[in-house]
Amino acid sequence: LSFNSARFMVSASRLDECPPDYGAEVAFAGRSNAGKSSAINTITANGKLARTSKTPGRTRLINFFSLNRENCRLVDLPGYGYAKVSRDMKDDWQQHLGHYLNDRRCLRGLVLVMDIRHPLTDFDRMMVEWCQHNNLPLMILATKSDKLKFGQAKTAMQDIGRRLKEFSCVHHLIMFSATSKQGVDECRAALTAWLEA
Ligand code: GDP
């Protein structure tokens, strides 16, 4: 499986616009600005695959990227948590994401992207609990590790690990940086194992 060959397939704003529900998918979730688009771009070595600079409300869609193996896909879920979005848009977001997460049978795992300096927000916790409840393997990317000194980053990872100890759904906790490429190989290996299983 090669991530470098990822191609944009389709944006879906409703479940019935998603590609057929077979094969294997891994979805990326995260709070807005956590670094999700940058992580996807880094993993696929494609600086433009997931748009990085975004306008609130313009990334409500679920984006699908195909890989070089038939019916293997990466999925970019809408970022959560712009303070300025309207109530309606928040409802919309929850609906889309809820439908996707609850109904998608080919979903093999979830990658939760969080800023290593602001880990485990309420949104992140909600996602962890959801994965635990639904037995969905979870990979946590603690990104922007380049923003911390090595010792601080290590302490932050230990702290995250401690806070997630009771959650057996967490299969991978990876220190990551789109800037320094730390953790990219480990992340690709874990994604490959999920998608090829
Ligand atoms: P998204 O909203 O979660 O998709 O976040 P983006 O990928 O658009 O990133 C938000 C901001 O954080 C942008 O200004 C990025 O350049 C920056 N950023 C993302 N990842 C990293 C990283 O690993 N290191 C550093 N230093 N900045 C990052």
Automatic annotation (TrEMBL):
EngB-type G domain span: 22-197
Record GO biological process: division septum assembly
Assigned GO CC terms: cytosol
GO molecular function: GTP binding; metal ion binding
A Pfam family hit: MMR_HSR1
Alphabetical keyword list: Cell cycle, Cell division, GTP-binding, Magnesium, Metal-binding, Nucleotide-binding, Septation
Keyword GTP-binding: yes
Lineage: superkingdom: Bacteria
First and last residue of the signal peptide: none
Gene3D superfamilies cross-referenced by the UniProt entry: P-loop containing nucleotide triphosphate hydrolases
InterPro entries found in the cross-reference section: G_ENGB_dom (IPR030393), GTP-bd (IPR006073), GTP-bd_ribosome_bio_YsxC (IPR019987), P-loop_NTPase (IPR027417)
Keyword Amino-acid biosynthesis: no
Cofactor(s) required for function per UniProt: Mg(2+)
Protein family (similarity comment): Belongs to the TRAFAC class TrmE-Era-EngA-EngB-Septin-like GTPase superfamily. EngB GTPase family.
Role description: Necessary for normal cell division and for the maintenance of normal septation.
Protein name per UniProt: Probable GTP-binding protein EngB
Organism of derivation: Marinobacter profundi
Taxonomic lineage: Bacteria, Pseudomonadati, Pseudomonadota, Gammaproteobacteria, Pseudomonadales
